[in-house]
Each structure stands twice: as C-alpha cells, then as structure tokens.
Design a protein that fits this description.
Layout: H1 3-19, H2 27-31, H3 34-73, H4 78-108
Length: about 120
C-alpha cells in the first residue's frame, strides 16, 4: 500500500469522524446553534484560505521551476515558454483569489440566512 493511499484514507476517515456528530443533533438543538454555525464558517474559511494559498504557492513554484528548466534546455523557445508560464500562474492565482472571495463571503455574510433569535 502506497503512502499516498494511506494518507488519503486517513484524511477521509478523519473527515467522516468530524462530520458525523453534526448529524446526531436533535431538531430543537439545530435552531439554537446559530452561533456555532457562524464559528464553524469562520474556521472553515480560514482553513480553506490557508490550504488554497499553500497549494497555490506549491503549484506556482513547480511551474516556475519547470519553465526555468525548459528555458535552460532550449533558450530559443523562451518567449513561448514565458507566455505559457504567465498564463498558468494567472490561472493558479485566480483559484486562490476565488477561495479568498468565498472566505470573505463566509466571514461577512451570515451563512444560510440570518440567524433566528427565539
């Protein structure tokens, strides 16, 4: 069994373990948990932004390294490689900006409508 499949299996089991208590709540408890929902949306937006920024930086580093190596091997194709590199970097960065937008929506807008106070 490879390390990647072990890590993937562990992450899936951890996710299921964290999510399963949410479904065990009573119907009345769900209405009073508006504050908990807001806290979880704050934590989710923070983790999503951290993961997106980290993986986006890794992707950009790998793309730049591959482009520099390609230019070193074939300097005459540097303009084409540079153009494709910039396009790739823009697309990677736009994914991180989309996650930032979603995180800001989760931070500043009440999730799933306004909480009802009884």
């Amino acid at each position: 069994m490879s390390t990647r499949s072990v890590v993937t299996t562990a992450l899936v089991l951890m996710t299921v373990g964290f999510v399963s208590p949410v479904y065990a709540q009573e119907a009345g408890a769900a209405a009073s948990n508006a504050g908990t929902l807001i806290q979880w949306s704050l934590a989710t937006s923070g983790f999503a932004l951290a993961i997106a920024a980290g993986l986006g930086a890794l992707g950009q580093g790998k793309a730049v390294a591959a482009a520099v190596e390609a230019i070193a091997r074939n300097p005459s194709a540097s303009t084409d490689i540079r153009a494709n590199l910039l396009l790739g970097l823009v697309l990677i960065e736009s994914l991180v900006i989309y996650v930032l937008l979603i995180s800001l929506i989760l931070l500043f807008l009440a999730p799933f409508g306004t909480p009802k106070v009884a």
